[in-house]
Amino acid sequence: MPFAFTRMNKIIGILTGDGDCPGINAVIRAVVRKSIVYGNTVIGFRKSWKGILEKDIYPLDMNAVSDLMAKGGTILGSSRTNPFKYEEGPETILKHLRELNVEALVAVGSLDTLMVAEKLFERGCPVVGIPKTIDNDLPLTDRTFGFDTAISTVTEVIDRVHSTAESHDRVIIIEVMGRYTGWIATYAGIAGGADCILIPEKPFSIDDVCKLIRRRHQRGKDFSIIVAAEGARPKEHNRFIVKTDRVDEFGHKQLGGIGNFIAQEIERLTGFETRVTILGPMQRGGAPTAFDRVLATRFGVKAADMAERGAYGKMVSLQGNDIIEVKLSDLIDKVKPVDSALYEIAEVFFG
Amino acid sequence: MPFAFTRMNKIIGILTGDGDCPGINAVIRAVVRKSIVYGNTVIGFRKSWKGILEKDIYPLDMNAVSDLMAKGGTILGSSRTNPFKYEEGPETILKHLRELNVEALVAVGSLDTLMVAEKLFERGCPVVGIPKTIDNDLPLTDRTFGFDTAISTVTEVIDRVHSTAESHDRVIIIEVMGRYTGWIATYAGIAGGADCILIPEKPFSIDDVCKLIRRRHQRGKDFSIIVAAEGARPKEHNRFIVKTDRVDEFGHKQLGGIGNFIAQEIERLTGFETRVTILGPMQRGGAPTAFDRVLATRFGVKAADMAERGAYGKMVSLQGNDIIEVKLSDLIDKVKPVDSALYEIAEVFFG
Amino acid sequence: MPFAFTRMNKIIGILTGDGDCPGINAVIRAVVRKSIVYGNTVIGFRKSWKGILEKDIYPLDMNAVSDLMAKGGTILGSSRTNPFKYEEGPETILKHLRELNVEALVAVGSLDTLMVAEKLFERGCPVVGIPKTIDNDLPLTDRTFGFDTAISTVTEVIDRVHSTAESHDRVIIIEVMGRYTGWIATYAGIAGGADCILIPEKPFSIDDVCKLIRRRHQRGKDFSIIVAAEGARPKEHNRFIVKTDRVDEFGHKQLGGIGNFIAQEIERLTGFETRVTILGPMQRGGAPTAFDRVLATRFGVKAADMAERGAYGKMVSLQGNDIIEVKLSDLIDKVKPVDSALYEIAEVFFG
Amino acid sequence: MPFAFTRMNKIIGILTGDGDCPGINAVIRAVVRKSIVYGNTVIGFRKSWKGILEKDIYPLDMNAVSDLMAKGGTILGSSRTNPFKYEEGPETILKHLRELNVEALVAVGSLDTLMVAEKLFERGCPVVGIPKTIDNDLPLTDRTFGFDTAISTVTEVIDRVHSTAESHDRVIIIEVMGRYTGWIATYAGIAGGADCILIPEKPFSIDDVCKLIRRRHQRGKDFSIIVAAEGARPKEHNRFIVKTDRVDEFGHKQLGGIGNFIAQEIERLTGFETRVTILGPMQRGGAPTAFDRVLATRFGVKAADMAERGAYGKMVSLQGNDIIEVKLSDLIDKVKPVDSALYEIAEVFFG
């Protein structure tokens, strides 16, 4: 058919970096399926940039991506490898892509991976970015897939503790992900009907929290559910740091333990029995929600279109109902704080 | 405080009409909670407009709405009552609202209820609309709550039948809601990885469906999952009507049975064993998803703001990330068809 | 170690027959894992007895069964092949097993597969049986895995329709699996709080059903939820047969459609709006519940022990808390009807 | 009707004590519904024995228990009140029951509540016991309701963390309930495919755990999931105690923090990145599973029968498939350890 005349088929590479989240496999599936429609071939690289540096390849044909839609995590694996921290790293990336005849590279990741992608693009790497993070704090897109699944998981947990809290007159603290922003805490807190939500964007007063709990008791509500993002910090203790020798998957020093701190303070100041649930990694897992599957699929199909068209140096983005393209160079290394209008809605239901 | 000087507190009425969907109770809760912040009082009317005509009131204080967030259905009940079909109906509505000192009326419903609300507004009724439908085919808003829960339910069903289909080389038809539009079929079909999606907007060819199934067999996929909206219709049988004496909750003649029709045709034409799942009312039920809870809450809070401000003759609407106000008079009695770009994405995965 | 002296390692074959159900893959995983502990090797046969007749083998090492626990269906596939319907069928089975050095064969299936296993055992086949059916109507064992998952699915559906039924004053019929017995209908009906449960073991009177619905209306319950096993039959219409040219996976003529019949009768006799949900194949699917995963694992481990010991001609069985061995020859081709004491408990909540 | 002649209707009291668990409301519903069949009246007492001491009554008619089946927690509330710790406590209990004409008292609870019930029975209190605990470690019954829901919740969490663990080469510790016994850890661990399960019944060696993790790495499994009951203790650190000033709902000093201890040790000894999920109260919450709903309903119906018959001083119990009666005096203040055969099955899948 004439089509075949007008073009040579492309080899498209794909990698997944940073923390995993539900929907990555759905993205991989979508990129592969749409690329096959174009007659292109897709190869995966294992463990993010590491896979290119070591030419560690995962062939991705139609069968390789069947049955992937509902699978959590990423079949390609992930890692913290940053080629710019390796001698000749960027050059090796470009060299290996050339040697493998990879004409377009789809990079799925959070800010770290996408910033690397942009810097490689400036050096001539034909990259297309797909944003992902369960934290929803990535700029330039209304939503990232993974977030909806995370808030569904957390909301279900809040639903579960509600009956216990109510039956036993307890205060229950749920510590959720959100080191720098309170998107998960705020969304899931609203959805779960939390009585108080603590987020990194707004240092809280432990005394105000106790006042709120007492006020609830006065109106006959002898239980309270408090959702705290792991990055939430108390005003009174601005010198308060949770010591830890653990570093997170982004190489940052890991904070945490705020849930236990709040629980101890509340018991000390109010005498009310308090319990803590620390969700940790379960928030990243599970089958993606229908919303995330569709968003991830739309992102993947769009990225395959861009790879076909040669629209490099850009990333896909959700704006309203539409999937659009934005320049990777517009990305700045700064997370997107919680929409204050949304937090104000949450506050309507405090206490 | 000066505030108290400038205004008298309001009595706000609320009713829920048309088919129920997950999130209505979350809306009621939000309207009540935000109104309490304003010092306003909320009363519910039972079974839609019927409750005003019969002064059937449901008092809604803080306790009445606690524990409502996750509850499906509507505590106010619903009905098909249309005051314009009653003699003196509209006048009685206005008279009773005056007698009950209701200064603002929040009407939660689909097109039917909102059109009635608009016509009453033209007669001087201080109405604020909140759109709701699981079908997502309501104009003037990007999304309606209930839809996300419905597609989650349907997607889970598709996931479930997948393993049986695969183990037994079966064709499985899943008949889902969508009398006039294919939103649920398309979204859930993409999310569930359906091999074919049939919607009212695109009359289908049963022969093409069979071709697709055979093509899958040729590449070793001995099973197929087909999602069909109840309103989907075959080209070849454009005279084909499923006879029924049942009318739906909107008073329309109820179509249906397309799932069984397709199954019989496929078995007749291909000889492949075929099974049918007809989801019916379960698609309206269950606890709302986190997404729907937050959307419903934002709608309810916004409606309470509008009732406070006296922004009547309008309805709340989701546009991108924002909750805005649109004129009820801009509503036309016409459903919003599936976004064709979205259906094209679904087609990428057909066969 | 002396152990090695006393024996040569065995090759163990495994096949899965009849309708699939959640937990089969967990059984396969358990047989393989425990056999590896014994130093035995396991090979799978594809599509039940067909796999032995055609020497269609699926190698099952440790990696092949990792990540299988939560997977519905059966990775080995299933079929209705009955070797006794093939000329030289049984002889071929024994011949091929000898040629493949298979010293023990684990047959996972319902009554049909297990009866075949028994007849082959009489001809010298070293078979160990594992009972499975979502219908829970298999004799000689308290429970079969798959059943708990099926009733969980159906119960969730009943929960979902509850809110709609209540909000709209509807009668909702849920047609569930159970061609010959009402185990699923009775268990899920009790768990979902059904107002009436119709099962094959007890022909029902449509008039009594309508009486019950009217009685509920009299006490202000304007909705009713009726769970009907597909094999339930009305007294009044003892000549009533639902015509169908479809045969089920057991080769029996498939009954069905009772849900629609009841709905039409109720609307005709009471005038109450009625809706139907026909669950169909979704009841077989999905990830197994924790209960089914543990039961399937215990069955699989026990079967591996029996294969190691050479305890042939027997099947595993749950008795109280214990997994025991029973003779396949004690199986009779007769399903186990619903425990009448259990149905009486369900009746306490009727009307 | 003659029936009315032969007997006077009874007033039956019911209370729920100790930690809440899914299914208690289903029990209350069943006791009330079956008692109504007998023409008996049921009244609830709020917050366990406290409700009798203070005559704090909750009327339980048919409407009060409708819609209760799926509701977690207990509508009657619970407390740690022990009448024997009050002066004249037991006498007051008996006196108040007489004054309220309560002829039979159904006590739903764990060991603490049931031991109190037995001691009151010896003083003439007409008590019927219903055992409940999510820990499944109550003697004299095969199962308690709440356990199945708890293991379902934990199993889902293990499923969720699996994908993250696999994508990131992590060790993930899941700390679950089980202060004195490892029932939840063992059952959910088997169901979730845990690579190691640590329980109070078997002090563990942290070195063995690290060996196991390293062995997995050697065979290419770079991740491990460890389920630890909160009461699990390491051999090497037999002096190891987690300090805490918190007491649990049984008045015992609360242990805990073992999850963090293990995580730190594993990182220290193996260098592998480790994450912790501490489930806490969410394990008590949520809608009961179908299994727990049916078991709770059978318990409740049986208790209503016993109250009617006057079979006092006994509790209901599940034995195999049957609900039987056992003497409360046979209860000893000692939990039931995990079935060692079950733990051995878990061990098959370790490493």
Automatic annotation (TrEMBL), chains A, B, C, D:
Residues that hold substrate according to the record: 133-135, 170, 177-179, 230, 275
Class of the enzyme per the UniProt entry, highest EC level: transferase
Cofactor: Mg(2+)
Site entry: Important for catalytic activity and substrate specificity: 112
Cellular component, GO annotation: 6-phosphofructokinase complex
Keywords from the named record: Cytoplasm, Glycolysis, Kinase, Magnesium, Metal-binding, Transferase
Alphabetized InterPro entries for the sequence: ATP_PFK, ATP_PFK_prok-type, Phosphofructokinase_dom, Phosphofructokinase_III, PKF_sf
Domain Phosphofructokinase, first and last residues per copy: 12-306
Compartments it resides in: Cytoplasm
Domain of life per record: Bacteria
Regulation: Non-allosteric.
EC number: 2.7.1.90
Residues the UniProt record annotates as site (Important for catalytic activity): 132
Molecular-function GO terms, alphabetical: 6-phosphofructokinase activity; AMP binding; ATP binding; diphosphate-fructose-6-phosphate 1-phosphotransferase activity; fructose-6-phosphate binding; identical protein binding; metal ion binding; monosaccharide binding
Binding sites annotated in the UniProt record for diphosphate: 19
Enzyme active site: 135 (proton acceptor)
Catalytic activities: beta-D-fructose 6-phosphate + diphosphate = beta-D-fructose 1,6-bisphosphate + phosphate + H(+)
UniProt entry tagged with the keyword Kinase: yes
Function (record text): Catalyzes the phosphorylation of D-fructose 6-phosphate, the first committing step of glycolysis. Uses inorganic phosphate (PPi) as phosphoryl donor instead of ATP like common ATP-dependent phosphofructokinases (ATP-PFKs), which renders the reaction reversible, and can thus function both in glycolysis and gluconeogenesis. Consistently, PPi-PFK can replace the enzymes of both the forward (ATP-PFK) and reverse (fructose-bisphosphatase (FBPase)) reactions.
Subunit structure: Homodimer or homotetramer.
Protein family: Belongs to the phosphofructokinase type A (PFKA) family. Mixed-substrate PFK group III subfamily.
PANTHER family per UniProt: ATP-DEPENDENT 6-PHOSPHOFRUCTOKINASE 3, PHOSPHOFRUCTOKINASE
HAMAP family: Phosphofructokinase_III (MF_01976)
Protein name: Pyrophosphate--fructose 6-phosphate 1-phosphotransferase
Organism this protein belongs to: Candidatus Moduliflexus flocculans
Gene behind this protein: pfp
